[in-house]
Amino acid sequence: MEIRNPKFNRFGSIDCEILHPEFGWIPFTASETDVEKAGQDIYRSALEMQPAEFVAGDPLPIERAAMRASRFQAKAALYQAGLLPTVERLLSQSENFMHKLAWDEAGEFYRDSPTIAHLAGAMDLDDLAVDELFRLAMSIRA
Predict the structure, then answer these.
(1) Exposed, middle or buried by CB within 10 Å (0-12, 13-18, 19+), for 95?
(2) What confidence score (pLDDT) does residue 58 get?
(3) Helix (DSSP H) and strand (DSSP E) numbers for the chain
(4) Confidence category of residue 133, pLDDT binned at 50, 70, 90
(5) For a tag site, which of 5, 24, 88, 99 has the least CB within 10 Å?
(6) 3-state class of 67 per DSSP?
(7) Using an 8 Å Cβ cutoff, are 15 and 27 in contact?
């Protein structure tokens, strides 16, 4: 498998591009704990390439405004980051009906929504951490 441009992300996994036989170069997040052996192999290969270190940066506001994730993607990303139980606990204890309703009923979550801002503040997550969670969510396919 051909790999290029490996760089560590905020969560310690490696963002890179892999050469897909049908789609050409595509983004891929490689993790040492990937459930698929192929993902673990890509991680090891990317690691041998000495990935660039993670450097925090502020994405363009337009990028942030375009970030959205389906209900499944959002919950899967929170699960992978170990944050799903915290979010569910916070919302179960919240007195804000609209945040609870959004969590229970929304088909999609938008990065710039009041519910996301509330949860990020309650969990003490900065903008860059929330951006990374959305990028992770948007990379997940059911």
Answers:
(1) exposed
(2) 59
(3) 7, 5
(4) very high
(5) 24
(6) coil
(7) yes
Phi, psi of 123 (to 5 degrees): -100, 0
State the pairing for strand pair 68-70/108-110: antiparallel
Q: Please tell me the pTM assigned to this model.
A: 0.58
Alpha-carbon distance of 134 to 140, in angstroms, equals 10
Which residue has 């192929």 as its token pair? 38
Instruction: Quick: pLDDT tens for 92-131.
Output: 998 889 999 999 999 999 999 989 999 999 999 988 899 9
Q: Tell me the pLDDT tens digit for each residue of 7-46.
A: 998 888 899 999 999 889 998 999 988 888 999 999 999 9
In angstroms, what is the C-alpha Rg of the chain? Answer: 16
Domain locations along the chain: 3-48, 61-139
Q: How far is CA 74 from the centre of its chain?
A: 8
